[in-house]
Amino acid sequence: MRRSTCARIGVALALIVISGAAPARADQQPADPLERLRALEQRVEELKQENDTLRSEIESLRHDFQATPVPAAAPESPEAATTPPVETEATPPPAEPVPAIAEVPAPEPTTIVSGAGGKNFLNLSLDGLVAAGTSTAKDIQALQVGGHDPTQRGFTVQNVETVLEGAVDPYLRGQANIVLQITPEGETSVELEEVYATTSSLPKGLQVKAGQFFTEFGRLNAQHPHSWDFVDQPLVNGRFFGPDGLRSVGARVSWLMPTNFYSEAFLAVQNSQGETASSFRGVPGETLFGREIQQREVASVSDLLITPHYAASFDLSDTETLLVGASAALGPNGTSDHGRTRIYGVDGFWKWKPTNAFRGFPFVKVQGEFMQRRASVGAVDSLAAATFRDRGGYLQVNWGYKAGRIVGLRFDRVSGDRGDPADDALAPRWRISPALTWFPTEFSKLRLQYNYDKRSPFQDDAHSLWLQLEFLLGAHAAHKF
User: Fold this and answer.
1) Which of 90, 169, 346, 460 has the most beta carbons within 10 angstroms of its beta carbon?
2) Beta strand pairing call for 320-332 and 247-256
3) Phi-psi region of 301 (alpha: psi -120 to 50; beta: other; left: phi over 0)
4) Residue 21, pLDDT score
């Protein structure tokens, strides 16, 4: 096959040379010079056509020749079969250009809604918290101070949180947290927990937040239940800030200071009424320190909730980080026109993580907060005007001893002055809570926690056991360190 192809190429090349170079025979040439010129022109055109045809055939033959595999020759004798073949360098075929393949980014674990021009502007996620367990307490709802704590024997839907978050434009980001719960009576409640916008391009380390949001007081108040290290919230948070934490409508400005360590100052101004401001103007008809809360309108800025907060973080070593903070919440309370409440707090967080940690494990982290409340309340019926002080705090330790496995221990205590002797809401109490947590993946969690509650002398001690399940759909926003 290869010899035949070579012969065909050779014959074609010879025809080109002969046809292009051989002159016309003398006996075939016309006598008239004009006729001879026309004959030569016609001959040139014929030769051009023949050359084009032959060149096309040669290119086709060359392509066939290069594409035809060369079969191995059979040995002619036993000696030839044992003789190693002589390697010859074959001319490789010309490399064909490889089309460029565009790089396709891996899809993110989130549902994205696209706006005009294909701009992605909305990230969606859903986080579910469900608990099951039991307690020896006769009134579990009075034992558990948090609105997202397990509050009954059997099963509790603690929190189902839907988050909508994304960039509004080059200047703002927006977020909304919609929470669903099932009450012990079996009713479904829907709550707009947070909805706010934050600036993203202010100079000098400044940022403004506006809308409904958790007040940045201490470490735990601004965190959502699924990011807690334990099944329920600490006693001091429930007593000072109410079942659903301290949050309201308002605005906050922060300044990230130009230091060589993390240093940020916050100042929030928010409304001081509602069930999420229970230590302040609260809800008319409810009680605070044994006094019924009255309707109180906003007459000046002093009737709003003012919350300054400062946080700083330091790297103690390559493996240790320390974060400290101080906060205050200042505002009116609804016991009288002149009632005032002041809450002060300090917080600390220490974490150790080795430099060779894999996916964040192992680690040890210690967190604590201490708060003090001072409230001046008005005279109501037989109760005279008074000033009450109470205090409380918690200390917790968590050890991530193995990937996805954490053991933790928390100690809570609250104490202080008593209000109405018939009101047990200010009675001293403490709680100790060991817990085991297992993360099968970053999108699910199982937590087992035991609580031992020591309450007032008029109430029995309580033992509780809770098992919590968390599941996450979509990509949740990063949590605060």
Assistant:
1) 346
2) unpaired
3) alpha
4) 45
Residue 417 has pLDDT above 50, yes or no: yes
Instruction: For the chain, count helices (H), then strands (E).
Output: 5, 19
Q: Label the pairing between strands 405-416 and 429-441.
A: antiparallel
pLDDT at 163: 95
| Per-residue tokens: 127 | 């986080």
End-to-end C-alpha distance for the chain, whole angstroms: 76
pLDDT single digits (tens) 272-306:
999 999 999 999 999 888 888 988 889 899 999 99
CATH fold for domain 115-474: Porin (2.40.160)
Query: Could you give the dihedral angle defined by the CA atoms of residues 464, 470, 476 and 481, in that order, rounded to the nearest 10 degrees?
Result: 40
Cβ-contact 25, 88 below 8 angstroms: no
Q: Which of 475, 468, 467, 469 is nearest to 444 (CA)?
A: 469
What separation in angstroms does the CA of 382 have from each of 291, 372, 386? 10, 27, 12
Tokens of 272: 């001081």
**What residue spans define the domains of the chain?**
115-474
- For 220-245, what is the mean pLDDT? 96
Structure tokens at 50: 């023949």
How far is C-alpha 376 from the geometric centre of its chain's CA atoms? 42
**In this model, does residue 11 exceed pLDDT 50?**
no
* DSSP labels, 400-448: EEETTEEEEEEEEEEEE---STT-GGG--EEEEEEEEEEEEETTEEEEE
**8-state DSSP, 225:** G
Share of the chain above pLDDT 90, in %: 60
CA 276, distance to chain mean position in Å, is 26
Phi, psi of 16 (to 5 degrees): -65, -45
pLDDT digits (tens, 9 = 90+) for 147-173: 999 999 999 999 999 999 999 999 999
Q: Is the pLDDT of residue 22 over 50?
A: no
Is 125 within 8 Å of 473 (Cβ atoms)?
yes
Question: How far from 333 is each of 163, 241, 303, 341, CA to CA, in Å?
Answer: 32, 13, 9, 6
Maximum mean pLDDT: which of 7-21, 46-60, 397-411:
397-411
